[in-house]
TrEMBL record:
Keyword match Oxidoreductase: yes
A UniProt-annotated Pfam family: adh_short
Family membership: Belongs to the short-chain dehydrogenases/reductases (SDR) family.
Gene3D superfamilies: NAD(P)-binding Rossmann-like Domain
Keyword Calcium: no
GO CC aspect terms: membrane
Keywords from the UniProt entry: Oxidoreductase
GO molecular function, one term: oxidoreductase activity
Protein name: Short-chain dehydrogenase of various substrate specificities
SUPFAM superfamilies, sorted: NAD(P)-binding Rossmann-fold domains (SSF51735)
Length: 258
């Protein structure tokens, strides 16, 4: 049994959370160009307004919000239902990243990371899922990271938050496939964004946000559950997951110069 893809984005009602920059902004531009109706959310209202101006009249809605605030997510979803009567795709891209290692670990940063990166998507999914289950249709897509595959340097909070996304998406897929609701787990490698600009190390197979958006839209159309890219990097990290720990740690120490 294969889950449904999206044949065409024309008139699809899409909610992009994290639309103001990076991958979310690139996906939003691609959806608008493809003829979708897009609701834009993030904390930066002015960036959303600017992005919405590139759409045709009635094609874009703007709902600024903080993903750690349930009431703001609830309000935005009510606004989408009032305007469009339903939602076809939730794309959750929003996330935070602060490099952390054992010698600079701060619990308050870890807590904020988990709240935004793991509980944020859970809040959004809890809001849209009941209506999708009623109509046995819809798509839930969450951007995680290859950092969730296994432990990597400088990801002492970010990595666990993305590992949680992988488990969450796997379980969602199992539960929702028989109900006709599609789940898409998106695991990018290094993408040139404001977040990765913080990194002070060489990022292998670095791609642009526009390239990431192309991968995501293609995966959504094909109905893929596991959307990961660039394959030459994400495939290598998938391989590392199956190695015995002594070999895994040896490879990481040898090839990750951090």
């Amino acid at each position: 049994m294969k889950q449904k893809g999206i044949d065409s984005f024309v008139n699809q009602r899409i909610w992009v959370i994290g639309a103001s920059s990076g991958i979310g902004e690139a996906c939003t531009k691609a959806f608008i160009k493809a003829g979708a109706k897009v609701a834009l959310s993030s904390r930066r209202a002015e960036r959303l307004d600017t992005l919405a101006q590139s759409a045709k009249p009635g094609q874009a809605l703007v709902f600024p919000l903080d993903v750690t605030r349930q009431e703001q997510l609830d309000s935005a979803y009510r606004g989408i239902l009032e305007a469009w009567g339903g939602l076809d795709l939730l794309l959750f891209v929003s996330g935070v990243y602060t490099p952390l290692r054992a010698d600079n670990f701060e619990f308050n940063i870890a807590q904020k990371t988990i709240d935004a990166n793991l509980l944020g998507p859970m809040r959004a999914v809890s809001i849209v899922m009941p209506d999708m289950l009623k109509v046995h249709s819809g798509h839930i897509a969450i951007v995680g990271s290859v950092a969730g595959y296994s432990g990597l340097p400088k990801a002492l909070a970010y990595g666990p938050s993305k590992a949680g996304i992988i488990n969450f998406c796997e379980t969602l897929y199992y539960d929702l496939l028989p109900q006709g609701v599609s789940v898409h787990m998106i695991s990018p490698g290094f993408v040139a964004t404001e977040a990765t600009a913080q990194n002070d190390f060489e990022m292998p197979a670095l791609i642009t946000a526009d390239e990431a958006a192309q991968e995501i839209l293609a995966g959504l159309q094909a109905g893929e559950f596991d959307i990961h890219f660039p394959k030459r990097f994400s495939g290598f990290l998938k391989f590392l997951r199956i190695l015995p720990y002594p070999l895994y740690f040896w490879i990481i120490r040898r090839f990750v110069k951090i």
